[in-house]
Specification:
The chain is an alpha/beta fold. Helices cover about 40% and strands about 15% of the residues. A hairpin with a 2-residue loop joins strand 5 and strand 6. Helix 1 packs antiparallel against helix 9 and helix 2 packs parallel to helix 9.
């Protein structure tokens, strides 16, 4: 089937966070939200649910776990029994529940900045101490500082590593040796690993996503892996996710915590969209991933030729490009404001993702090529005006 990812859909005045948070002359290329219509099979599943006219309390169907297990087996060659899968209303809700169960007073959580900005809020809201194991930036790519991770994990008050796999915002796909080093360090130091793998399906050709769960089973450690079709299939407004662990009793603790928080239920539309995405959406996913990769190559070449003051971080996944803007001198927050006011372009300041992100900007390229070209043109004109 041919999907028209070049179609421009008017999203202003639709209560869109992405498009309605700024004046109409601002081009928004920030929050992780695609400007593509969802797969028709998912639209159909949602329409069928609406047509039923019944919106009462609903159990999660057996299809939820079955289709998740099948998806993980087919996409990542990992066998996960249905008993080791827990449906959760969203990845962050699941992460918060895990932390609530295991965190004790005065304990700490390791993050690896620059990293997904909401991780910082999760740590703050939990009352835990924040420990930063900053990634190493070298030759337009990022690497884990394992010596620093070892030192910080060895602190007896360190309880969690909140891991991003693949990594948002830098687009890194972690290799098996990276995952094994993490598992070995955390196992030896009794650190619980929570792996957020929401971008797993958006890995570019030539790279391979490896679920942390497939590595953790070889080590004596507590770990949780969370994923979702929400980023892959542009369903962020219909949040639903899965959590897997090698120990059923760990998942049962999380389920009870979600129940106590009154956050256990997944709404009927989200559940229907979830099952349809994993059941029928593989072709759409493959096509959108190709389109995003082509956008990445287009943007990378455009910037190299026309905006050489900005350096493109080599990306291996996601639709979020990470731009090294240090040559522009400005702090990221200042640059963000200048782009809004002068270029009429909204990007994310790199410092949102930790101090290690200052001097960088994040741009969302999951949009029709015409919109991407407009955004790059605005960025080019701005840099040329400096």
């Amino acid at each position: 089937m041919n999907y028209n990812f070049d179609e421009i859909i008017e999203r202003r005045n639709t209560d869109s966070v992405k498009w309605d948070s700024f004046d109409d002359d601002i081009l928004p290329m920030w929050v992780a939200d695609m400007d593509f219509k969802i797969a028709p099979e998912i639209q159909h599943a949602i329409s069928e649910k609406a047509a039923s006219g019944m919106m009462g309390y609903q159990f999660i169907s057996d299809d939820f776990k079955l289709i998740t297990s099948s998806w993980l087996q087919k996409q990542y060659d990992i066998a996960v029994s249905e008993e080791k899968i827990l449906p959760v209303p969203g990845v962050l809700l699941g992460i918060s529940a895990i932390i609530r169960i295991y965190l004790r007073e005065d304990e700490k959580i390791i993050l690896q900045p620059p990293v997904y900005d909401h991780f910082f809020e999760t740590v703050q809201n939990s009352g835990a101490g924040l420990v930063c194991n900053n990634l190493i930036y070298r030759d337009s790519s990022y690497f884990i500082d394992f010596d620093d991770l070892e030192a910080k994990a060895s602190d007896s008050s360190t309880r969690f590593l909140l891991f991003c796999n693949p990594h948002n915002p830098v687009g890194k796909v972690w290799k098996v040796e990276d995952l094994r080093k993490i598992a070995e360090i955390c196992s030896r130091n009794n650190v619980i690993v929570i792996s957020d793998e929401i971008h797993a399906d958006l890995v570019f050709e030539g790279f391979k996503h490896i679920p942390f769960a497939s590595i953790a089973e070889d080590y004596n450690l507590i770990s949780f892996t969370l994923g979702s079709p929400c980023k892959t299939f542009n369903l962020s407004g219909l949040s639903a996710a899965y959590m897997i662990s090698n120990r059923e009793e760990y998942l049962e603790k999380v389920r009870k915590t979600l129940q106590q928080q009154e956050t256990e239920w997944i709404n009927p539309f989200s559940a229907a969209a979830y099952v349809a995405a994993y059941h029928f959406g593989e072709e759409w996913m493959s096509e959108v991933r190709k389109y995003i990769y082509d956008n990445y190559q287009f943007a990378k070449n455009y910037i190299q030729v026309k905006i050489p003051a900005i350096k493109v971080t080599e990306s291996q996944s996601t639709y979020l490009m990470w731009l090294d803007c240090k040559n522009l001198i400005f702090q990221s927050t200042v640059l963000e404001e200048k782009l809004i006011n002068q270029a009429k372009l909204k990007l994310n300041a790199g410092s949102r993702y930790g101090l290690a992100g200052d001097g960088f900007m994040r741009i969302n390229i999951a949009c029709p090529r015409k919109i991407l070209t407009d955004g790059l043109g605005r960025l080019e004109n701005f840099v040329n005006s400096l």
